[in-house]
Amino acid sequence: MSEPQPLPTSKEELVRRILQEPANPKWYGRAQTLRFAVLAPQTLARMAKCLAVLDPRNGDARSHFSNAVRLQWGRQMRQSVQPRSQETRTVAFGDTTLRFQCGRGPSQAFFERVLVGDTLHEAGLLAYLRAHVRSGDLLVDIGAHIGYVSCFAAAFGATVLAMEMQPTLVPVISANALMNDLWSVHPINAAAGARPGLVQSMRLDPSPGLMTHSERVQNNRFPPSSVNHDLIMRVVVDDLVLDRHPPPAFVKIDVEGAEARVLEGCRRLIEGERSRFLVEVHPNLLATFGSSLDDVLSSFPGDRWSARLLREDGSTDAVAPSDFAREAVRDDNYMVLFEPRTPAAVAS
Predict the structure, then answer these.
(1) DSSP code of 120?
(2) What is the maximum span of the chain, computed from C-alpha positions, in angstroms?
(3) Phi-psi label, residue 317: left if phi above 0, alpha if psi -120 to 50, beta otherwise
(4) Order of strands across the sheet that contains 250-253
(5) Cα end-to-end distance, the chain, whole Å
(6) If you placed Cys at 162, which of 144, 204, 237, 329 could pair as Cys (CB 3.0 to 4.6 Å)?
């Protein structure tokens, strides 16, 4: 009796097996989870149709074809409800080129104030992610704005939870991701904080760098009937870990001064020492949220975590905790990479 062949472990292996044995139904049934996770609807439909022609009695093929067609319709419907802009801008980073909306609203403001001319926003962060992201890594992007970093991270191979508290920006993230065929970007309309709950957020214009984090409005002191506030969910980042799956490989935090509050909700991830944290520290804004630079740094015990400045070329510099305050004199904000000191503990 021959030994059963192992299941395919990758998209490439799955496609190779199906092409080699197009009439063999076992690759459809035994690898269903992998197949529906990695193959686009058009590919699924073609494969199922091929099998149905070769083996008309195969009921699985008909069922899989129906699901693939519904997935195609689902994509079309998702794209149909996204905001559209006639004006787009191409942003290139190395061999990765993406398009973003730029003609109106928050997208226009982003390109007029942040990505002016031929400048490249967050070049050091993009360089770091390009060098370290591996296919399938989960990245949590807290403060995603229009999805600029989220889209690049997805293009590098990551699955991205793009968390943005401003409802105005969430459809823009979706539109930018879908315009680049990046279906692994998952926008989440929520604020990150130290505890979960429903919170109020003022309906300010979503200008880049504007402090609109929900923690600024303490104790939900406005009535729920306020016509100038959104009611949004505040989530604890620790609760975003998918059951039965590894923790995020990367957590990027850019919340304009609320860094310490967000890190309070990352305690289990920090204790687990399997995620890298890329934190944009705004020393001059921390006091607005009742915290300090020491609160951010002390979130990562020095005996188990290293803290390094992330430079514009993607390199990192070791900086003593006592020197981070001096960096604040030179820059209003800077990116700090916190890594577990045990390399084997880092998710790869």
Answers:
(1) -
(2) 73
(3) beta
(4) 197-202, 229-235, 185-192, 159-164, 138-142, 250-253, 276-281, 334-340, 305-310, 316-318
(5) 39
(6) 144
Length of the chain: 348
Mapped onto helix, strand or coil, the DSSP state of residue 71 is helix
pTM listed for this prediction: 0.86
Concatenated DSSP letters of 20-43:
HSTT-THHHHTTHHHHHHHS-HHH
Residue that has been written with the tokens 């074809």 in this structure: 65
Among the listed residues 102, 152, 96, the one whose alpha carbon sits nearest the alpha carbon of residue 278 = 152
What are the DSSP E strand ranges found in the chain? 88-93, 96-101, 138-142, 159-164, 185-192, 197-202, 229-235, 250-253, 276-281, 305-310, 316-318, 334-340
What would the pLDDT profile of 78-121 be if each residue is shown by its tens digit?
Answer: 888 887 777 899 999 999 999 999 887 888 888 888 888 778 99
pLDDT tens readout for residues 123-180: 999 999 999 999 889 999 999 999 999 999 999 999 999 999 999 999 999 999 999 9
